[in-house]
Specification:
With 222 residues, the chain is an alpha+beta fold. The protein has a domain of 69 residues: P-loop containing nucleotide triphosphate hydrolases (Rossmann fold, 3-Layer(aba) Sandwich). The chain starts with a helix and ends with a strand. It is 55% helix and 20% strand. The chain has a three-stranded antiparallel sheet. The protein is built from four helices and seven strands; from the N terminus they run αβββαβαβαββ.
């Protein structure tokens, strides 16, 4: 091989070597980038998994807290309404609240339970005593909810004919119940009623009547 040919061969070999080195560095750089990207993705996956686990834990905690809150609210409402019913109607009457789910949403059904010895009857409050029991349940549940909200709501109570559906024989007990509730929750209460027993419990009571000229006249009867 001539000196010129040997020189050309050496030059080609050096060029090929440089090309290989350049390719090696490119591939090494790409491999480094891929490893870095892989590491970042693994860290991201780990972070997302931890976040998912945290969210799942929070969901479980919130679900259990909600269930416990519903249970406590149920027990409170049952207790308050039962006390009201037994105060007015007798110890054989109580309120039962049954919790369930419908369409993934919690629901509550109200039943009035009457016990006559071993014989027990559960009915919808709206179907009892011409609506009187429904009035008692609705009012007592309202008071219980009012108390469950804490002291943030201090508004007065305005009651329109609170005993209109309750049998006349229970009027005095309804009157005493309303008076005791008003005092126990320490709220000013305004009532409009045609029931003389209810009218007598007020600290201040006015009788409104229309005179011959068609004007309303208020007379203090307290």
């Amino acid at each position: 091989m001539s000196a010129v040919a040997e020189l050309i061969h050496t030059t080609d070999a050096k060029r090929d070597l440089e090309n290989l080195k350049s390719l090696f560095h490119q591939e090494t750089g790409m491999l480094h980038q891929l490893k870095q990207s892989k590491k970042e993705m693994e860290e991201q996956v780990l972070s997302l998994q931890e976040e998912k686990n945290g969210l799942e834990l929070k969901r479980i905690i919130l679900q259990e807290a909600s269930q416990e809150a519903r249970k406590q609210a149920k027990e409170t409402l049952e207790s308050v309404a039962t006390n009201a019913l037994q105060y007015i109607m007798g110890e054989h009457v109580s309120l039962v609240i049954k919790l369930s789910e419908k369409g993934n949403s919690p629901t509550a059904s109200f039943f009035v339970r009457k016990e006559y010895g071993d014989y027990v009857v559960e009915t919808d409050p709206a179907e009892e005593e011409g609506g009187g029991i429904a009035d008692i349940v609705a009012f007592s549940v309202f008071i219980a909810m009012l108390q469950l909200t804490g002291g943030s709501n201090v508004a007065s109570l305005f009651l329109d004919e609170p005993s209109k559906f309750v049998s006349a024989g229970y009027s005095d007990k309804v009157a005493n119940f309303l008076y005791d509730v008003s005092k126990s929750i320490n709220r000013q209460t305004f009532m409009v009623t045609h029931d003389e027993f209810i009218a007598k419990i007020g600290d201040v009571a006015y009788l409104f009547m229309m005179d011959q000229d068609g004007k309303s006249k208020a007379t203090n009867i307290s």
